Amino acid sequence: MSADTAVLEAGGLQLRGWSAGDAAGVLDMSADPAARQWSSSMRRIASLQDAGEWVAARCRSETEWAVCDAATGELVGRIGLFGMAQGPAFAEIGYSVAAGWRRRGVARRAVAAVTAYGFQTLGLARISLVHAVANAGSCAVATGAGYVFEGVERSSLDHGDGIRYDAHRHARLATDPFPTDGGSRVNAPLYAELESDRLLLRPPTEDDAGATRRLLADDDIRRWNPGPDDTSEAALRTWCAGQGDWSNGSHATFWVFDRSAGDLLGTVSLFKIDHAQADAEVGYRVASWARGGGIATEAMGVLADWAFPALELVRVELFHAVANPASCRVAEKVGFRHEGTLRQSYVYGDGSRHDEHLHARLAGDRVPVGQRA
Amino acid sequence: MTYPEPLTLTDGRLLMRLPEDGDVAAITRACQDAELAHWVPVPVPYEESHARLFVAERPARWQAEDGEMTFAVTDAETAELLAMVGLHAHDATMRELGFWTAPWARGRGVMTDAARLACRFGFDVLHLQRIEWQARVGNDASRRVAEKLGFRFEGTCRARLLHRGERVDGWIGGLLPGELT
Amino acid sequence: MTGIEHVEIAAGRWQLRPPVTSEAADALAMLVDPLTAQWYPADVTDQDSAAAWCLRGADWSTGTHATFSVLDATSGRLVGNVSLWGVDLAALTASVGYRTAPWARGQGVAPAAVDAVTGWAFGALGLERVELPHRVANPASCRVAQKCGYLLEGVLRQEYRDADGVRWDCHLHARLAADPPVSIDPRAGAA
């Protein structure tokens, strides 16, 4: 250990400079597919010797930290400030979290600690956080730590795997107010695309209006989850665009497509997102032509698996009419437990007040195996 | 990584080549312009020694991995210096387009044509996967050039650009293969 | 957005009416009481913030709540507060919440107030369903709900996150307009 790296404390984490003894932990971290996907330097690690060289390179920096569990000293991630040569008072923050330590707020706490250090001790004026659009978890970390979204830069990220990724650029200035938890925009991703074996989930655009009209023109959907009253082409284009606009932070809505054929199969939505309470509701529709194939289960599973970590949710609720038992099966398969039966609690599309089941899944719930992509 | 040797680009009207000693006087004169200095972070006051150093560094910068391929844009007939355009390396397949136009050459579409030649060179010869454009917020002339070439506006970055020690807000845009118009 | 018209409701020993700022001192004492604050943290710390809390309670113009001060009908002193909140005049649903001043506990204020507001909500206001959620850890609320005919419909795991970030399991009770009547004796003893 040569560089004089400050030790930072962050809510149960200790951030310290790298030392030669970290090589084994780094080798473990580099075996994780996600770490390899987003880090070109990790991808090159194939042996303990490679890991040692990786660590040695970090030992020379005063602004790269090993993130450790403060209690056990276990290596749980890495974080650093880079690119300070580009100009005085500018830096870019980069980090990753070991596979077993995700969904526990490690990234957010480490980013907060290093951000504070960068502004207060290093006197930085601006720190950028650039992440691949597909890496939605990073988007939540960025917004949660007060890094304001500035734009989508197409094909701008080179992770060294031969693919150029579209990137979100976020930045925080030293003069920015500290983020407040519970602000409706805090934590909110602006866009995500999700995939499973058969499905592609992405926010709708106005160009989806035609297929959306066919999807909504169905008795079951009119009854249980109707679209807008006005089904003119213009109105549906506006509605689809609105469903795809997540900027107010209250919802994350996806249209579900057949990954190979490209056909619209349904919709899934996380809505009533309450960042202060860390909870939300989910709802979905399956096109009449796509029923009976487990589309809802697969899409809802993908949505839930994404939503808990990406939005740092603890509880997600699913309501359905008791008279709609198909939804009950979907809920149970995706791990939403039945918690109660609400009498006459909601007026559905048929104009009638229905009894409803309330299902909920918590972040720590055991989820049925084999039901998810 | 090896790069092609500095080369000359032309569309008949413009001729673009590596800056040379004979450009020093014209570069110095152009960089006295207050409008140019407001949008482009050239030294102020701009002295002949600045231009001399700039020209002298060009051949090495052309080949450097984090360098810049710079073209002096001249009138193909009169050889008068009109503008400067460069492609600054971000990584192996991405560069940033930068440019300024001398005050005596504005209003004739010089930069649009010169930047188009530079971008074509970037895609066809360097096989870039992305060309980026950044400008100080409010630099509408620069933005018009970028948009004419097909750059898509991507965002506004607060306090991202450093102009002679001052942090200013920046616009950012991107041009991908096949989008050059 | 349609507001809700102010009303006063007589409930035996107790009188319900919209809050007024002249009772801010009693409201402050009620809200900073640890037993109240434990379940209802109101962000009220002094006379001014208590007065602001009274004003918010008295503003029914959004149509989303109807909040009442509960008074001793004889002395006129504040003894509690009951609020019909989350009112949805389109869906005809709402929730109800309540707190009792420390000097009035053990006198059945809460069941009497909830019963009175429930009757008004189903009657004059025309609602069809009112929910009463409370933390499982607060069994006193459970007894109020049961006394007032709010059926337990479910246990919502970790449904509520408090200001310290602690998550609490909650009971969801609800009463429908069509549910059979219950009898609350306003002179009944301790809840």
Instruction: Flag low-confidence runs of chain C.
Output: 186-191
Question: Could you name the CATH homologous superfamily of the domain at 9-128 in chain B?
Answer: Gcn5-related N-acetyltransferase (GNAT)
Q: Order the strands across the largest sheet of chain C as they lie in space.
A: 1-2-3-4-5-6-8-7
The class by helix and strand makeup of chain C works out as: alpha+beta
- The secondary-structure element order of chain C is EEHHHEEEHEHEE
The helix count of chain C comes to 5
Cα radius of gyration of chain C in angstroms: 16 Å
Radius of gyration of chain B over all CA atoms, rounded: 15 Å
Largest sheet composition of chain B: 8 strands, mixed
Task: Sum up the overall morphology of chain C in one term.
Answer: globular
CATH superfamily of chain C: Gcn5-related N-acetyltransferase (GNAT)
Mean pLDDT of chain B, rounded to whole units? Answer: 93
Q: Span between N and C termini of chain B?
A: 29 Å
Structural class of chain B: alpha+beta
- Main sheet characteristics of chain C: 8 strands, mixed
Assembly type: heterotrimer
Q: Unreliable runs of chain B, pLDDT <50, ≥5 residues?
A: none
CATH class of the domain at 9-128 in chain B: Alpha Beta
Number of alpha- plus pi-helical segments of chain B: 5
Fill in the CATH topology of the domain at 9-128 in chain B. Aminopeptidase
Give a description of the structure.
The complex is a heterotrimer of chains A (about 375), B (about 180) and C (about 190). By secondary structure, chain A is of the alpha+beta class. Chain A has helices at about 25-30, 35-40, 40-45, 50-60, 105-120, 135-145, 210-215, 220-225, 235-245, 295-310, 325-335; strands at about 10, 15, 65-70, 75-80, 90-95, 125-130, 150-160, 165-175, 195, 200, 250-260, 265-275, 280-285, 315-320, 335-345, 355-360. Chain A has two domains: about 10-175, 3-Layer(aba) Sandwich (Aminopeptidase), CATH 3.40.630.30; about 195-360, 3-Layer(aba) Sandwich (Aminopeptidase), CATH 3.40.630.30. In chain A, the strands form two sheets. In chain A, strands 1-2-3-4-5-6-8-7 form an eight-stranded mixed beta sheet, with helices on both faces. An eight-stranded mixed beta sheet of chain A has the order 9-10-11-12-13-14-16-15, sandwiched between helices. The model of chain A is unreliable at about 180-185 (pLDDT under 50). By secondary structure, chain B is an alpha+beta fold. In chain B, about 30% of the residues lie in helices and about 35% in strands. An eight-stranded mixed beta sheet of chain B has the order 1-2-3-4-5-6-8-7, with helices on both faces. Chain B is globular and about 35 Å long. Chain C is α+β, with helices and mostly antiparallel strands and about 190 residues long. Chain C has helices at about 25-30, 35-40, 45-60, 110-120, 140-145, and strands spanning about 10, 15, 65-70, 80-90, 95-100, 130-135, 150-160, 165-175. Chains in contact: A-B, A-C. The interface of A and B includes residues 152, 155 and 164 of A.
